[in-house]
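This week, study the protein below.
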Amino acid sequence: MEIYVVKPGDNVDNIAAAFGVDVDQIIYDNQLEYPYELAVGQALLINEYERNADRAISVSGYAYPFISPWILEQTLPYLSELPIFSYGFTKEGNLLPPAQGDDVWMIREAERFGTLPILTLTPFGLDGNFNNQLIHSVVNNGEYRERLIQDLLEVMAEKGYQGVDIDFEYILAEDRDAFSAFVRQVAEAMRENGYHTSVALAPKTSADQAGLLYQGKDYRALGEAADHVLLMTYEWGYTYGPPMAVAPIHQVRKVVEYALTEIPAEKIDLGIPNYGYNWPLPYERGVTKAAAIGNVQAVRIAVEQGAEIMFDSLAESPYFQYTSEGIEHEVWFEDVRSLQAKFNLIKEYGLRGCGYWQIMKWFRANWVLLQNQFYILK
């Protein structure tokens, strides 16, 4: 398998001829649209049908119940686990079903492909945002904790879930130890009933890192309590932030290296973004809002706008700029080069696997490359 970067004057036919591969395979793997125009700087996956996998990893991908059935069907062969987003709860610990739709059909589809359906638990308030007062209420009250755990076990048994993923964010610093104890209690109850427990971790680089996103999460305690963890190594570039890579590899590496001082590698999954952002320029803090876009969509924008795709060697991420209707734009996204950098990190540190946020958009080249690099645990 090769990664080829498009040069001026290239077209799909001459690239296929140079590699001696079927032109239709390049078109299919890279989701090219007729008339198959390319952007200078675009990274193409060239599939020469030689697998380089040398180890098996666990792969998960978050999805909402309104995911396209076709996309879910295409993705499930590559997933060990399907975390369904998401269940909530009240301040008294009553479990709430997904507000985004029925989850049962996804559970049945996961079972059909030998993928474990996972119940994702989130503390969303009525405004749809993470609510640390919900967390505070439940983790500090024994009765509420027990109620929530019993509700979880009942729903999991009824619907066929095989594990729970605890995705709590913006935990108050004062609730750090109570949250760790809550995860431990959940994990113990799950193990007793044949289920496993994972927890999503904000991307810390030190134990005492300041900030509401980080102070409530004790990597060591949570790593000991849960069966495995997901490092949320994305969102450096985000909706209201300045233009930059979503998951710059030099920053991702720092998080992994810190995590390994607290948690065994065999318990760590690397978070991988399956999206990019399109920022209007100039960027103004608190005002500018980037639009989330798919990776295939990003390349199509570059083709339509005649933009050259650049590659940041430090972040190991692609980006480009263009002007439309008098407004300048900057786009950062993921391609097979940036994904290869992340897969290399999994290999280098012997991590358990990876988890995608999220799988709502189909990016075939990612899955072809992943399967070339690893065997997928089922």
